Amino acid sequence: MTAKRDYTVKESPRAKHARLKLSLREGLVVVVPKGFDHGRIPGLLEKKKRWLEQASERIETQRKFFEPEPPGALPERLSLRGIGEEWAVDFRPTESPHVTAVERPGNRLLVFGDTDNIEACKSALRRWLNRKTHEHIKPWVKRLAQERNFDLNKVLVKSQRTRWASCSRHKTVSLNLKMLFIPEDLIRYALIHELCHTEHLNHSREFWALLKHHEPEYAKKDEKLRSAWRFVPAWLDANKMRGENGG
Hints:
Blueprint (H helix, E strand, L loop, with lengths): L7 E5 L6 E5 L3 E7 L7 H7 L1 H18 L10 E4 L4 E9 L5 E6 L3 E6 L4 H30 L6 E5 L6 E3 L4 E5 L7 H13 L8 H10 L3 H9 L15 E4 L2
Parallel strand pairs: 1-3, 5-7, 8-10
Antiparallel strand pairs: 2-3, 2-11, 4-5, 6-7, 9-10
Helix pairs in contact: 3-4, 4-6
């Protein structure tokens, strides 16, 4: 039997079934539909024992990795592994009440304005990352769709909390700007994964067969992608240190 675990139960009116979430901030959370029998939770934990062990190991590794970094610190450098770019970041206070990030020669990013406003600085950096994603990764997924005959309708750029990318039933792929920080091969895998969802909007046997056709080593890439959070800087997303299982 699974060792006794402390957990919190949250009822969600939108939940259709029970699922588990594990994070540094909240610990283990069991999200259940309204009216769910709480007596079934121990059995759910036993069923998800392997996932819990793996997620707990990832969370503990994340804890060791991130604890030395001050949570509010602004970056001095940005390593955009996915597009092979390294940027030095300079902060320059001015009289402007706004904060703007502009590119300068030599891969230097100048952030100027009210630079004492940490959140405004972070927002300016996110806007710049959004532009870089539009510039580099958006055309990439369009090329892949064309080369591999996927019916892609639209591409959006967002800053999702727990997903690298997603695909809607309207064949719209949403990219996470945080993808810029992960290795190129993992970005490519994530893009192919979502393009396969334009044909199968689920994780059915047919979906995995299609994914294997386009990416024979998908299992290895999928496992690496699950731990790719370590490449994303802490200032960008305080909630990234989280594991989730759909149940």
